[in-house]
Every structure is written in C-alpha cells, then in structure tokens.
Amino acid sequence: MRRKGHLIIVSGPSGVGKGTVCAEIMRQRPSLKLSISATTRPKRPHELSGESYFFYSMEEFQDLIDQNKLIEFAKVHGNFYGTPRDYVMDNLEKGEDVILEIDVQGAMQVKENLDEGVFIFLLPPRVKDLADRLHNRGTEGEEEIALRLKNSEGELANLHNYDYAVVNDEVEKCAETILHIIDAENQRIDASLMKKYREEYHD
Question: What digits encode the pLDDT tens for the residues 106-160?
Fold first, then answer.
C-alpha cells in the first residue's frame, strides 16, 4: 500500500550548511526527491540551471507568483526565492518523500499555506560558527555577510515553529539523524493505514 509522501522541510540560518547536509542526505539515500527552488539571484560559477536552482528574472518570477505556481516565495538578502508547486505536489501524490531546502521565511510560508510537512531546523554548534562558515565559503562580500548574520537572529527566533532541531556539527552524522526522522515519520499511524487494517479485519 502506497502512502502519500512526506514533505521534509530542512531550514535554518545562512551559513548553517543546509545545502551541504541535503547533498549528503541525497548521497546516502538517492531514492528521495530533492525539490529545486526558483530564484532571481545571480547564478554562481559552479551552479547549473535546473539542477541547483531554476534561475528567473524579476519579471519571470512575478509571473510565477501571479499564476500561483509557487508553494512559497520570499525576498531574502535582496533576491526572491520560491518553491515550484507542481514538482512537489506531484511527487507527494506518487508516495515520494520530497526534501525541501529553504530559508526560514519560506519555511514559515509553507507552514501557513499547507496542512502537511515535517519541519527540521538546522542549528550550528555555536552561533559564532555561522560567521566562520560564511567567510570560509567565499561567495558573499563583507556587507552581505553582515546582513545575513544580522538576519540570523530573527531566524533563530522561529525555532519553536519547527518539529525537530538538528545540530550540524558533523555533516554525515547530521544527515543520518534527518534520515532517522524521515523513517520515523513514515511509520506514523495515519487514516489510510487504519482503513486498510479495518477492512482486512472485517473481511
């Protein structure tokens, strides 16, 4: 019996390692589906459109909003990010678990707009580690790093809105913990499971 899939939201402040952890999750369990976000931010040298992100102009992104083709969208650090609706919902209906890696603003929109989702907040071992990671990855200037660190305080204040908190002190261990959470969620009792066994009992 195939259940509807789970939407697994992996979120947290900038610099916590969301992308690295999600890549490790997919390495350990490639059968999962990784949602690809839409964005208006410039493409980084190592990124590919349609794999890392779907890259859009401001005008194109506005069309997606107007046509209700995004589950969530937000303006973060001067750029828009959003989650394409069709990819996520189609896979959930097929019984696939979908990993959604998004910022905190986007996660809160998903929580408001959908009645489903497993919300996981990634935490750094120490707040200071966020600054170290942002400097070490070398993709932002000092002004943008300062803005991201300032925003992280408000993002951490949303911790109570999540179902789970996982500390990213070691990427492989963090990914394994999230996979354990997914496995536990897939063992939850739901209406379809109860219906199946009630029908079998009365046969």
Answer: 899 999 988 889 999 999 887 666 666 666 666 666 766 666 666 666 678 888 9
- Per the DSSP assignment, residues forming a β-bridge with 9 are 100, 119
Distance CA 98, CA 8 (A): 6
Q: What angle do CA 47, 81, 69 make, to 5 degrees?
A: 110
Pairing of strands 7-11, 118-123: parallel
Nearest C-alpha neighbor of 118 from the set 4, 27, 8, 200: 8
Please, which residues bridge with residue 75 across strands? 80
At 23 the pLDDT is 94
Range(s) of the domain holding residue 100? 7-35+96-202
Task: Count how many domains the chain has.
Answer: 1
pLDDT of residue 45 exceeding 70, the answer is yes
The residue behind tokens 């209906």 is: 93
Quick one: residue 68, left, alpha or beta (phi over 0 = left, psi -120 to 50 = alpha)? left
We report the CATH number of the domain holding residue 107 as: 3.40.50.300
Place of tokens 């828009």: 80
